[in-house]
Amino acid sequence: MKITYYGHSCFGVEVMGKYLLFDPFITPNELAKNIDIQKIPADYILLSHGHGDHVADVVPIANNTRAQVIGVYEVVGWFQEKHGIENIMGMNTGGHVTLSENIQIKLINAVHSSSMPDGSYGGNPVGFVISSPEGTFYYAGDTALSFDMKLIPMEFSIDFAFLPIGDFYTMGINDAVQAAQYIETKQVIGMHYDTMPVIKIDRGNAIEAFQQQEIQLHLPSIGDSIQL
Predict the structure, then answer these.
(1) DSSP assignment of 167-214, as one string?
(2) pLDDT tens digits, one per residue of 170-226
(3) Cβ atoms of 161 and 185 closer than 8 Å
(4) Whole-angstrom Cα distance, residue 102 to residue 7?
(5) Angle at Cα 176 formed by Cα 171 and Cα 179, nearest 5°?
(6) What 3-state class would DSSP assign to 113?
(7) Domains in the chain, start-ordered, CATH in brackets?
(8) How many CB atoms lie within 10 A of CB 94?
């Protein structure tokens, strides 16, 4: 799968000929100033929760691409009600759906909070497990370390995972290493770090902490793509 990093927690993943875009927060992010959102493709936009640093660019990208917006019922319903986004799929924690080309999505519990940019109720935060004939990965969203993660490898074999590593608002590096062990993966892509001073990380220390447990941590530059 080809993975493109757009900054903060926003990634595009090409799988089975479809483009999955996660948590688009680009235009307000000074670190992503060279990313043109009009050029970002999307067949599906997946939202882990309603905070502004995860949904800021949903409306322009959804309008430009006509992508289906998928997430918790209250989050996608807000975009329908407030912004007229009609192509939505409102789900909830534990729910499972099969998209086109045998892409399957399951919503996984996340330990965080959720509200919409106007302060209205944003339902429960979630992560996603995406499985297809090309492989299976876990996008954790914003979360603390949780024993619930131990349930994931009981159902799925995780090839790689997107995990927050910035601390302060989410789990930090040490907890993310533990999370990788809980979900039994050896490939991690870091997210939710460096965007603001309180979540700055020491990249060398982060990579070493994962290496000590024989886990590879990927920290691509914004705009770059990797293959996993």
Answers:
(1) -SSS--HHHHHHHHHHHT-SEEEEES-SSSGGG---HHHHHHHHHTTT
(2) 999 999 999 999 999 999 999 999 999 999 999 999 999 999 999 999 999 999 999
(3) yes
(4) 28
(5) 110
(6) coil
(7) 2-227 (3.60.15.10)
(8) 10
